[in-house]
Amino acid sequence: MLTNADPNSHPRPVLDDEKAATVLDMLCSVLAPIARRRTHVTPSKGVRAKKRKRKQQDSNEGSSNVESPSVSHIESKVTIGFNSTTRHLENLAASAMPSTLACPPGSSEVLEPVDQAEDDTKDRPSHVDAVFLTGPFNSLLHAHLPMLCYTASTANPELPQTRLVLLGASADPKIAEAMGLPRVGVFGLLSGANETESLMACVRENLPPVEVPWLKEAASAKYMDLRVETTK
Fold it and tell me: Which residue from 51, 40, 56, 14 is spatially nearest to 146, judged by alpha carbons?
């Protein structure tokens, strides 16, 4: 299903209500370890805590052996927040080679890199499997995300194109609870997490990637020789 409030922009694929609910449930299950770790983080008590530091050290000797949960693997595969997700997509798009831009995401054609060091890919940011919006699409605030999802995918044309998933306004409280945060408006899932395989399979099956027809057409443009026909 496609939706587009602005006739001058490209359409944005959206999930139907039933599929969106399924994806939301799977997301909450995948993200749950993040909230569990955050609940074990002790907040700062300010300057006054220093005065009781020595007394607390003696009383906490027995409890110091109890380790708080370490950062979960899934937490390292999530970009949380508008700025963090946008910055990651921008870095991916910037790392794309000019020759790669001529190869649309998902294309089987692989072009040879031009003046590109072989080890450049080692420093390239991780591919983004999907970007999720937990609220309604804002034509001003989120206008750059469809384009960034497309251009960031050109950095890894051999991987599935980044999906832009609109979960709806009702998803924000559930996602925020799963992450242990007050609010999460935008976040991204990076590739390489086993926990997200089933989730991304569901997303890719039911949601086509964002297409930017004019950019795809411009990137795949070919030189046409001048042909002059003369008639007598």
Answer: 14
Share of the chain above pLDDT 90, in %: 41
C-alpha separations of 177 from 26, 183, 203 in Å: 14, 8, 22
Q: Which amino acid is at 158?
A: E
Nearest Cα residue to 186 out of 151, 141, 124 = 141
DSSP code of residue 185: S
Backbone angles phi, psi at 131, to 5 degrees: -115, 130
Mean pLDDT, the chain, as a whole number? 77
Contacts of 225 (CB under 8 A, 6+ apart): none
Angle between helices 145-153 and 82-95 (to 10 degrees): 40
Q: Within 13 Å, how many C-alpha atoms sit on residue 153's CB side?
A: 26
Quick: pLDDT tens for 191-214. 998 889 999 999 999 999 988 777
Q: Which two tokens stand for residue 202?
A: 């569901």
Q: How confident is the model over 52-100, as pLDDT tens digits? A: 655 555 555 544 444 545 556 888 899 999 999 999 999 999 887 554 4
140: how many CB neighbours lie within 10 A of its CB?
Answer: 6
Give the HSE-up count for residue 59: Cα atoms under 13 Å, Cβ half-sphere. Answer: 5
- Give kind and range of the element (H or E) at residue 131: strand 128-133
Q: In whole angstroms, what is the distance from residue 168 CA to residue 20 CA?
A: 8
* 3-state SS assignment for residue 133: strand
